[in-house]
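Dear Dr. H.,

I hope your travels went smoothly. While you were away I took the liberty of generating a structure for the chain from your last submission, since the lab meeting agenda had it listed for discussion. I wanted you to have the full record in hand beforehand rather than looking at slides cold. The sequence, exactly as received, is reproduced here:
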Amino acid sequence: MSRRRPSPALDWQLEQGHALYETEDHVEGQRMRDAVNALPEPHRSCVEMRIWGRHTYKEIAEELGMTGRQNAHDHYTRGLEWLRLSMQKDA
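The corresponding predicted structure, in token form, is as follows:
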């Protein structure tokens, strides 16, 4: 599997998710890690691969044996929504 070429626009978009796991507040960071770990599969893997691994949706779909990149995108966006709701509920 080939890695993507750097793209300033995509890098900026991915960096927006940087706050999901890098924070000065270690308690908040642990809450986020716990929330990510509580996600059901394949949502958890999609979120981890997209944010931490910087994989494209195509790469995620291939790695997880999904039917296409749209499928990976759907699992990723649902996973982020569940994270958002989980973090709001716990706040």
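Two observations you may find useful: Residues 6-13, 17-21 have pLDDT under 50 and may be disordered. The chain is about 65% helix and 0% strand.

With kind regards,
E. W.
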